[in-house]
Design a protein that fits this description.
This protein has 752 residues and is α+β, with helices and mostly antiparallel strands. The protein has 16 helices and 35 strands. β27 and β28 form a beta hairpin.
Length: 752
Amino acid sequence: MKPNQLIYCVTTVALLFCSPYTTRADQQKNESNSYKPRIINTTDLGADPDDEQSLVRQLVASNEFDIEGLIVATGCWKKTQDNTAMLDVILDAYEEAYPNLSVHAAEFPTPEYLKSIAVMGQDGYGMSDVGTGKDSPGSELIIAAADKDDPRPLWVMGWGGMNNIAQAIWKVRETRSPAELKKFLSKLRLYDVLGQDDAGAWIAKNFPDVFYIRATGVYGWQPSKEHFAENIQSHGPLGSVYPDTKWATEGDTPAFMHVYPNGLNDPEQIDQGGWGGRFSFTKKAGIRSMSEVPKIQEDGETQYDPYLMYGNTDEKAEAIKKWNKGYNNDFAARMDWSISSKYEDANHHPTAILNGDKSRKVLRMSASSGEKITLSAEGSSDPDGDALTYNWSYYDEPSSYNGTVEIHTSTSSQATVQIPKDAAGKTIHVILEVYDDGEPNLYVYRRMIIEVTGSATAEILEPLAGSPYTPFPESVVVTKVRHFDNMCWKIAAAGGTWYFENGETDGKTGFSSAFDQAGNDWIGNDADRGYNKSSNIGGKHEYRGWPNFGEGNFNHPQRKSNSNSWWVDKNGKQIAFEDSLSGDHLIMRSSNPSYELEYHFFPSHATIKIIRADDKYAFLFEGPVGGEQETSVDKDYYVLKDGIHREIKSGGLGYLEPEFGNKFPSPFFYLADSDPKDKQVFYAGVRDVGPITAGDEGWRQGENMVIFSFGRDEDKRAYTGTEAICVFGFAEKTEHKEISSFIESKIKSPFK
């Protein structure tokens, strides 16, 4: 910390003393407890000492959380527990440090309170310790916390196994009505570190609507051992119980760092990114537990396949590491607090004010494309009178806009953001980072999400992004454009306009968009970027395209699969592509080391022929029903060969029809929007040549996402050989008999 001074600067650093503005302590008081996340830890203390490390970090920041439970748990590395002795030792150290901590910030929980919520959980491993007569103080504590009359969600964090929460859910299901169970589950936010027993898969399988994150990107963000020795372990009673690293350092810390209320992110919006990393709102199948779990029971987790969870985005630990100065210095400063009985002997956090807002909330504002807007941190202050430095930055990964955003005077207390002209309908995340010049520098943050008004038009989007041709050509016309920031073949015909990533961008191939004549994108990969008509601004789902064909993401759009594509004549000889191609029958090939496909495009439909398949495969469609990412999808429907209109409901996850399970009884499906203005349906069908184990699946996921596949055995691809032929395209929305006849004729004669 620096002595108080009175200096006014017009450069990038501002000094404030005796500030009339809100201090961080006042900020806490004014916000009451509304900003604090409610959390319960379940920890397998006695396995890897990283749990002890994470607990020390959490305790010196415990004024920022409402900790409602500390539960000693089991896991794959500690399959039994019989006491809370290790937890008691750490809480005793906290009791020694508590008087000093309370000098530096209000609302640290008392040692007596923390000891009152430190309890034993399940004493046995995984699902073997869930069921009748298996209640524990930990599972009962979870139920009691969720039952509180508190509007805030309850974050239950599994630093070990998840069977304490599994037992709590099991008991509520057995003793309460379905409506009461639904209410109970709605309060829960589950954060599972790496998966350390089979209970997580049981929860995700049996309660697919529950909010469940499994974090696998929890290593690689930590500082050096020397940093911990100098700044943590040398600091008093809590430093003395911070053990040396044995296997990994603080692997459980990202769980509570995700909900750390530092102004950087809203933990409910898991794709925003913060100290705890960034997660995708697309639930994924097969996020497996640690390798020790199947050694305990080979099918302990796979028996629940398919189960789906939220997982890390591609950045994994890099999404944590980008904030390393902030979280490293925060921990170091708080350890200083734990040994400093005088306020002036340590540094304290600034307060960041964004456009006059003094809270820690993520803010939103609207702007027009091409507009310049001003963001202000005026009024930000430091309780120690330290100089403040400002940094404004564009956070591209969570933004739906996929381009460059210019920020002028980005190191001043006021910044000007130039909204790009092609950003209509998209979001731009701007991060304000404020830090002081105390020792160590302490960082606080704010986030402004700019929602760019207007609709993306063909004039704006072409050729950088997707739009249908108007009018649609009677033959097939191919051009090359950039779409969703990837080079694509744009294939237009009477039925629709297709965008196929052609391999030029990082070896990515696959259909990322399929526009019908009304301009709706029925594949809509990354549809939340604003290209679809939707009242759900920003969106929450990544639509994964078509045909999402082979192992290793072959022909899965926006996934690197070492693939390329080219155009051939009817004899398979490569033809040169210059500015465009046109004709009534155009043929494209796509390959990588394991697969080669041939795509035949006709004015009325398209056909996929398999040239080579050295591994198993399936034809997988994932996209929005009706070509729109709508908030409500009631009355949108899908149809199988039997002609029944089956409605698709928003939210949830699971088979579209439970009685079909993994094998819906139809060689084709088609999807229809109930809007009478939409005149076309999307269809796909396959000659059934796969093994008996290959199923034809239908799934629902999220707001308006469906998954249909041909050739899957649960969550695994199952087709082999080269005999399978797939047809797909758009058809006129008319009577089922006519649509069915049209699709079956294409399956029978796919190359006509």
